[in-house]
Every structure is written in C-alpha cells, then in structure tokens.
Write a structure and sequence with these properties.
459 residues; D-Maltodextrin-Binding Protein, domain 2; 2 domains; two-stranded antiparallel sheet; 20 helices; globular
Length: 459
Amino acid sequence: MKKVIAALLACTLLFALCACAKTTTTTSSSAATASASTAAASASTSTAASGSASSAAASDSKITLDIIISQYSDNTQAWWAADGDYIKAFEDANPNIDLNVEVVSWNDLYTVVNTRISTNQAPDILNIDTFADYVSDDLLEPTGDYVSADLKAKIIPSFWNASEMDGTVWALPILASVRAMFYNKDILAQAGVDVPTTWDELTTALQAVKDKCPGIVPWGLDISTDEGQAAFAYYTWNNGGGFTDADGNWALNSDANVEAMNYIKSLIDNGYCNADPYTDTRYPLQDAFNAGSQAFMIGACNMMSADSKVNYGVTSIPTNNGTSPVALGVCDRLMVFKDEAAEDQDARNAAISKFFDYFYNVDNYSKYMVYEGFLPVTTDSSEQLATKADQYTVGGSGAAGNNEYFATFCNMLGSCNFYPTAKTEWIDVKQGVIDSEQRICQGEDAKTVLDALQSQIAG
C-alpha cells in the first residue's frame, strides 16, 4: 500500500470502526461477547461453519453484507449486478442474507475505501490487492473466524500463505496471475535450439539467436524503476536466493543473489537484450514479442494480444544450480473488516462463510475466472479449467474459455512465490534492489552493492 494510503489509514484511529453491514434490528451485544463468540466459531471446521450457518438461518434478523469488488473489466459490473443471475442465485439459496455489492474502479478504489473507513462505513468484505496496513491498524478479522475447513483445504498453499502476517492469515486470494517465460517457436527453430531450462542452456540459445536471426532481440529485459524488483525475483529465486532466507529474515546479499545479479549483467554485456533495459518497461517488451521481433521474455500470463500472429510457447523460468523452477505469483485479495457493533458475531461470520463457500464453489468460481480472464487459486477449479474451460464464456465476448491456456498456467501456480509485501521494509527493499541491479549492471561490484543494501535494510 502506498505511503499516502497508509497515512490516510492512520487517521482512522480517531474513529471507532463500525462497518456498514448490520442486521435489520438494533444492535445490542457487547464487543467482548462478540469476541468470545468469534473465538468459539473459529475452530475452522466445516461442521462448525455449518452449525453457525444454521444459527443464522434460525434468527429472525436478516443480515446484509456490504461488499466492495474491484473492477477488473468492463463486464465486472454485470456479473455483480443486484438483479443479475449470480446475486439472485445466492440470495434465493440464502433468504436471510442480502448482498449489497458495489463495483469500484481501481482508479477510485483506494480513495473510496479510505473514505469509508474514516467515516465509520467500512465494508464487510473488500476486494483489493494489499492488506498489511489494514492489519497494522487492527481493522481486519482473521480468516480463522469465517473460512470453512473445506475452503481452506482447497486453496493453493502458496496463495493462502501470501496473506500471512505475524503468523495469522488475514485475507483470501481472489484470483491469480503468474509470470513465466514466453518464447517464439519459429525463432527458436530458425536458431536451431531447444527450449532452455537452465541458465547455461539459455545462454547458448541466446547466442544462437544473436548469430542466426538478424534483426531479432534475443532476450527482453526490464530492470527499470517500473518493475525492476520483478527481475530481481526472477533471477534470484531461480538461483536458490531471494529477498529473504528460510526464516523470513532479509538476505539481500546472499551468494546466490550476487551470482544472479552478475548473470543479469552478462545478458546485457553479451548483447542479448533490448537496447535500454534500464528504462524499457515490460510494456514495449510485450509489444516487441507480440510483433515477432523478440525471441524470449518473462511476462504475465495475459501478455499476448488477441491479434498477435506469433507462434509462441510458455514454460517455467530457467534455473541455475539445480534449483526447482519458481514463478512470480500475483494475487488480489478478499478481506473481512471488523464490525464490533454487530448484534450477533456468530451470525455475521456464518453469513460471510456462506458467501465465500458460494463464491469458491468449483462451478461458480471457474465460471468467474473465465469470465474475467484470470487464473484460479483453488485446486478444484485449477483442475476443472485445465480440461473444461471451454464450457464457460469470456465476459463481453461470448467466446469459450481456452483449455490449453488454463492447463499451462494453472500447472505453474503451485510453484509461485510472492514479494514479501507484509514486511514493513518492503518499499525500501523494492527501491533498493532496483537501484542495486542497475548499478551492478553498469559496472559496480555486485557483492559490495548488495552488502550495502543489506546493511541499510537489516542493520
């Protein structure tokens, strides 16, 4: 979360949080009683969730859940419309729960959310990307209070753990994107090389493209201020390094990271890359690949344009030193705000649990992923879409989902790693690794530069 947003959130400590979802009767139970009820409900078993749901159904009160959903496409509003099939089906199956869903564009999302929080009108459920600042301001419910055991069991572990902070998971992943290596099959055939899986094989392939394919850029590299931290992740993770060690401590100057930075430098020094990797962002690189003038690049799963004629393939990022391939995962989240004024916390949590069980139902969720064009974060939908994506339609077009697309990228979801965004030093680390890799690639000693960064961050 941007620093300015964090500052705005800090202002909310001046107000008592009262989320805008309420039962239709006047609230009266105390926060202490609600906390005790919540703790009892958080046994995290399907039976417990079902029991709480039964209590809610027996209540005379109707619960309204206020939900903010981020706008992912021009079709998001239609999916979540109050009179649409999705909302009507949920409310018909759950007559004691009303869903009040507001779709907000990403351009307005942070302003809307912070205004709601500062005026004591936080939503019950929020779909956004980051969560750490909300946790720091004690605004969120832990997932143990409302996620059923069955739902937790089917979320891909790396995506579940991506929302952990101080030993507690605070949000659910709503959808995924993954970064992988794209390659032009025709260029590789012209160069006479196979798809590389290791750094040595990649170097050989790049040299062959350089020698045999005039006018073609062998490797697209972005170490710009836009997203240079991604390059740091691609190469360090796939060399056994990364931002942190196994204990979660900063390890920016590890031997594996030093070697990875020197490898990036070698790609530039040997003339394998685009002319200015220090300023070229991934967008012109994607354009070049889509146009057929670039042999390789690491990119997001949705980087190919609909009108591209390139005969391409996708595979894991090449590794070094026998490291298992690691992909960069990206996920947005669903989180639940506290409502200490709720009349019945058990009933509220049960209603939220019912919503999430409905949302992540294999058919409902698979349909939504194809509709919006993202990857699922559950094992059952990953398996379903790998062979049955064509049974669902893409929002706004009526086109069928692509089985091969989902099979390729869903297969990589289990290998995803994530930026350590929950750590308070992340913003400084992000800027630090970009600055460091640029300085190293321009000639400074990798070990010296990374030692200085580690000292700055970790002391």
